[in-house]
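Exercise 7. Predict the joint structure of the components listed below.
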Amino acid sequence: MATHTSRGPYKTGVRRRAEIVAAASTVMARRGYAGASLRLIGEAVGMTPAGLLRHFGTKENLLIAVLDDWVEQTIRMRPPSSATGIGYFTRFVDLMRYHMLHPGLIELFLTLSAEASDPSHPARAWVTARHQRIVSEGVEQLRNAVTNGEIAPMSDRRMELEVRGLFAMMDGLELQWIADPRLDLAATFESLLEIVLRRWGATDAPQIGTPESAIGGEPDVPAAAVRA
Amino acid sequence: MATHTSRGPYKTGVRRRAEIVAAASTVMARRGYAGASLRLIGEAVGMTPAGLLRHFGTKENLLIAVLDDWVEQTIRMRPPSSATGIGYFTRFVDLMRYHMLHPGLIELFLTLSAEASDPSHPARAWVTARHQRIVSEGVEQLRNAVTNGEIAPMSDRRMELEVRGLFAMMDGLELQWIADPRLDLAATFESLLEIVLRRWGATDAPQIGTPESAIGGEPDVPAAAVRA
DNA sequence: GTCTATAAGAAGATAGAC
DNA sequence: GTCTATCTTCTTATAGAC
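Solution:
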């Protein structure tokens, strides 16, 4: 006991736990919650199903850990209130680029969002709450943009409509992208966001040219190379 | 044999088959392909798993039958080439209203679209092919709209971008709607479509007021009542 | 055409050795 | 902290009675 080099008794345990969450995240993203068995996750991290349950008790607890990790990663990538007004929205281009490098994250979110149409799905409440949170967060930032004079004024109803439309477009593009990874997700979104910002009357809309093609159809334009 | 009243020997068989497909469609939409066991589907239609497999042989064959039925229902609702140019896009408002009355259809499509991010998923090829088909179909109709002088000209790349953005918005709104059915899907989409058509320079964009609120928050505005 | 019975395997979860 | 072994239940699928 006195000879171990780690400073805390739980140090390796914490690391192992993180490895399990990462593996579970990947497998659940690919196969869905129901399709991701503890054996499959265990194989990915080199452990038996019993070993996993020593750490998390139940499969549902593991899902919750995966969701928490997803939130943590997203926040680390895009800290809340790091940008206000229009800057809040332009930062989503970086988020899309981040997603292209970590496909599992968005696969997981979309799979759970769709699966959770079942009211008895363990992630149902989490998904619903998250949708509500990002819409109200978006409306708040759009209001900031108006207050700061970055964009033209609009009604509250119009703001909710615009925010819902923008977030819907992001999710829908991600859905197209996981069906065909040749789609340049970040570039496509960047072009569409520019159109939206221009329509809102943003004066500092980023100057971005229309990408060569949304799909890299020609073999000499390997858009898929951007992925990890 | 000579006494039965049905005209063909397979009449009841065909009806039963249709009932199974309908039940399987509902259960798969709610639980995903992996989560929808033959036992669960059998209970929904009053049959044992063995009975189901008498009709379809394997679970995967049943999924194929469900996908074919999905296509058939969608086509019946919105016949191909029934509207060209801008009319093609405005008809999507009707499609959204239809989806609100038949939630299972869109739940199934979204669940499978997300699940099928796994390359080994049996519906992977079907989902990918469908995404490609509707994008090229949309671009074709947008081109028609330009040719007919309904909207301002735009480049081929821009057309693909606009179509991808519009379809992404539709899928994303549907994702928001299954997470919170209080959202008035058709009205929200109608308002957003009007904005897009106006931007395209459509002269006959439908005159629709912004809905009272995208979410019927007040108890006296039961937006959910529109559902079946 | 649907059933019961059953196979062969995988699922989540528990007990206890080391 | 991870293992093996085991339990119970559930999975898809087959065989054969009615």
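Discussion. Residues 37-39, 49-50, 53, 57-59 of chain A lie near DNA strand C (CB under 10 Å from a C1').
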